[in-house]
UniProtKB/TrEMBL annotation:
Residues 243-371 form the O-antigen ligase-related domain. It is a multi-pass membrane protein. GO terms for cellular component: membrane. Keywords: Membrane, Transmembrane, Transmembrane helix. The lineage of its organism: Bacteria, Bacillati, Actinomycetota, Actinomycetes, Micromonosporales. PANTHER family: TEICHURONIC ACID BIOSYNTHESIS PROTEIN TUAE. It is found in: Membrane. This is O-antigen ligase-related domain-containing protein. It comes from Micromonospora endophytica. Pfam families: Wzy_C (PF04932). InterPro entries: O-antigen_ligase-rel_domated, WaaL-like.
Length: 457
């Protein structure tokens, strides 16, 4: 089916002529959508191990752009003519998160830190700046549905490339990321290898871990399905169908419970907004993928079933549960504000493999509440936008955004998700997108079209 890119209540002047104003803002070739698309390409196409020389893992080119986005947003706020008119709830939620991070940073240094902890705390604060920058630029910077779709189409295509790399690794047992070296960047830190689990081999594609790869693929899946269903042209829809199949097929290659759980959450949210024909098509597609998987890797199905049936005796599960007493002993010592943001350094202490535990130990109950507020606020904004939306396409996008937040909450119990920069940079993109769709569906035109103050005056 074909849909119009013009909002039913608004005139999009760019649909008349390329040079006209878009949503009452000056036309520009490099806007927030272009920078966000560049960030996604650098983040997902370049292996996570490659950084700018003599920098930490925050030296990934994508993260440098993310930090600069925070500076860009702040500079816009200082100009009395450029900030957007109208409310944006995410600004207040992000402000609370940044205030918590600042207080937690101070608490850590008041406690007294080792050199490793202090360096890690500095790194965590730089990441908070990158996180806030991406959220706010997405929420305030995307002017209309057209530019919004551009960013997420780039996201889906990049996810398709990651899926293809993962599938090649899975089939060939060869690390094809060695052919993705970028001049001027150098590998640093942990390089994921191949881990045999049952009848399959776990792959990480361009990410740093198998679980991270599975979570990213699950997060991209609902958007790939969206464009396979709602893209304007038949040929484009067919291409996105192929990309969606690649992404869905890549999830089992990680041989990870997290990936299957995340995919299940996607279905839990998306099935209610699908019509019966869509549900039938998805069921047939799932059966076809399962049959192909059984043909290519007969023992992989038994391995996946064993992941859940034998979870109680799985060392990867028991090693996590064995840490509960240790986590409790550290938590009760500083239950409210924690030890300080970024100060739980895995090489110095133990690996937690649980983002919520890490948040509790470093930020206390206040830190857990701050992170939970981000997720819950994003879900609430997406639900409000879904209820306001009149077109099935917009409702489907809002449901996809809700699923990403449920994924983020769930996988936080499976691994320390904010320590892995690919997933941790996609998360603020999804949070900011909920603020954007909330604005696009707002009943007030001045809020919906993101008018700059110079025009309103």
């Amino acid at each position: 089916m074909t849909t119009s890119l013009v909002h039913p209540a608004d005139l999009e002047p760019t649909s008349v002529s390329r040079g006209l104003y878009a949503s009452r803002r000056r036309y520009t070739r490099v806007d927030a959508a272009v920078l966000l698309s560049l960030l996604l390409c650098l983040l997902m196409l370049i292996p996570a191990k490659l950084i700018v020389p003599n920098m930490t893992d925050l030296g990934r080119p994508a993260l440098i752009i993310a930090v600069l986005m925070s500076a860009w947003w702040v500079l816009v706020r200082f100009n009395p003519r450029l900030p957007m008119v109208g409310p944006q709830p995410l600004r207040w939620v992000v402000l609370l998160y940044v205030l918590w991070a600042t207080v937690s940073y101070a608490v850590g240094f008041l406690r007294g830190l080792t050199t490793m902890e202090a360096n890690s705390a500095d790194r965590a604060m730089l990441y908070v700046a990158a996180f806030a920058g991406v959220v706010l630029v997405v929420a305030d910077g995307l002017p209309n549905w057209d530019r919004f779709r551009l960013v997420f189409q780039v996201f889906v295509w990049c996810a398709g490339f990651m899926a293809l790399v993962g599938l090649l690794q899975f089939v060939l047992w060869t690390d094809v990321t060695v052919y993705l070296m970028v001049p001027g960047l150098e590998p640093k830190g942990f390089v994921p290898g191949f881990e045999v689990r049952g009848a399959g081999v776990r792959v990480a594609s361009t990410t740093l871990h198998y679980i991270e790869f599975s979570a990213v693929m699950a997060m991209a899946l609902p958007f790939a399905i969206h464009f396979a269903r709602f893209a304007a042209e038949r040929k484009v829809r067919q291409r996105f169908v192929l990309v969606a199949l690649l992404i869905a097929a890549a999830i089992p290659t990680t041989v990870s419970r997290t990936g299957f759980l995340a995919a299940g959450l996607v279905l839990l949210v998306m099935v209610p907004v699908w019509n019966w024909r869509m549900r039938y098509n998805m069921a047939v597609t799932a059966v076809g993928l399962l049959a192909a998987l059984m043909f290519l890797k007969p023992g992989l199905i038994n391995t996946v079933i064993g992941l859940f049936a034998g979870a109680a005796d799985d060392p990867s599960v028991t090693s996590r549960t064995d840490r509960y007493d240790m986590v409790q002993s550290y938590f009760v010592a500083r239950p409210w504000l924690g030890r300080g943001i970024g100060t739980w350094v895995s090489p110095q202490y133990q690996y937690l493999d649980n983002q919520w535990f890490a948040q509790a130990l470093t930020g206390g109950l206040v830190g857990v509440a701050a992170l939970a507020t981000l997720h819950l606020a994003a879900i609430a904004l997406a639900i409000v936008a879904l209820r306001r939306a009149e077109r099935p396409e917009d409702r489907h996008l809002c449901a996809a955004l809700i699923s990403t937040q449920l994924i983020a909450i769930a996988v936080g119990f499976m691994f320390d998700s904010l320590s892995f920069t690919t997933f941790a940079t996609l998360l603020p993109l999804m949070i900011g997108a909920t603020g954007a769709v909330w604005r696009f569906t707002h009943p007030r035109r001045a809020v919906r079209t993101s008018t700059a103050r110079w025009f309103a005056a």
